[in-house]
Design goal:
Helix content is 45%, strand content 15%. The chain has helices at residues 2-13, 23-36, 50-57, 59-76, 100-121, 141-157; strands at 40-47, 82-87, 90-96, 128-134, 163-165. The longest helix is centred in the middle third of the chain and has 22 residues, at 100-121.
Length: 203
Amino acid sequence: MVRAFEVSQTQANSDSLTGLLTRRSLETEVRDLHATGTPYTVAYGDIDHFKDLNDVFGHAAGDRALRTISQVFRDSLRPADIPGRYGGDEFVIVLPECSVEEARQVLERVHERMAERIAIAQLPQFTISFGVASSDQAVEFDQVVALADGALLSAKVGGRDQIVISTGTDVPTMDSGAVQAPFDPGIQDDDSVGFAFRAPQHS
């Protein structure tokens, strides 16, 4: 009975397609970092031209791409790092006690292994872009994610397939489709725990 409960909890905390943490579960992990005062860096990434990948090669190819990314994360990230699927083709990785430059090195390893895995699996070619921000740049998790998301948008504008580190001011504006709300530990909904930032869609 206890084992069945543990399996059920693991399934509830994990994304069914990729096996990564769900957004809600990842944000619960971040609460623990805040509680212990542990600094962290956030990497916000998504697949470049994911809609085109689905349209040209079919949704099965898109699903394989998402699963491939999750496998590369497991092979490339540090043991303490916390990757999660935020929805669609968007991923957030929380890297505890990691500077933005160290995070860049980790993500460069992700890029390298991604290309290798795509070739081995004979998948349609695709790339992933990342925006990176540090908890040193903002007080609350939603603010750090907003900065990372702004850096991701810069990566898209700059040509995609790259890693951009936040300047600390590149927050998506209301015109870009983002909706921001203050971090409130009491807020809980189906998607998040104490997190009300809704990021724009990337491509």
